[in-house]
Amino acid sequence: QVQLVESGGGLVQAGGSLRLSCSAPGRAFSTAVMAWFRQAPGKEREFVARIGPSGTWTDYTDSVKGRFTISRDIAKNIVFLQMNSLKPEDTAVYYCNQMPPIRSYWGQGTQVTVSS
Question: How far is CA 110 from CA 22, 55, 57, 96, in A?
């Protein structure tokens, strides 16, 4: 079983920035659409952003457009999420996965907390 590993979360003030990373030890995802998701307390997990296999196209949920940027380092098999101008409503556990997601690939996620 492959579990993706997310890192880079933390506590930040509103307006701040964080960069999340997602790696997949032992497995290459170079041909997969990769995505970031998040789950806030008491809410369903939701889609945040996705990126094509070669990194030439990206797509975002409306609430993060212009603030978040998804990218990938194909050679290193890492997917990033650069988050700028963070808002308290961005507080959630952030996960990465293929798109569409594979149930067994869900990792532990990384906590992002934005204080007002």
Answer: 10, 23, 24, 10
- Provide the β-strand partners of residue 16: none
CA dist 20 and 7 (Å) reads: 6
Say if CB 105 and CB 71 are below 8 A apart.
no
| Pair of tokens at residue 42 | 């008491």
46-51, strands of its sheet edge to edge: 10-13, 110-115, 92-98, 34-39, 46-51, 58-60
> pLDDT tens per residue, the chain (116 residues)?
678 999 999 999 999 999 999 998 777 787 899 999 999 999 999 999 999 999 999 999 999 999 999 999 988 999 999 999 999 999 999 999 999 999 999 999 999 999 99
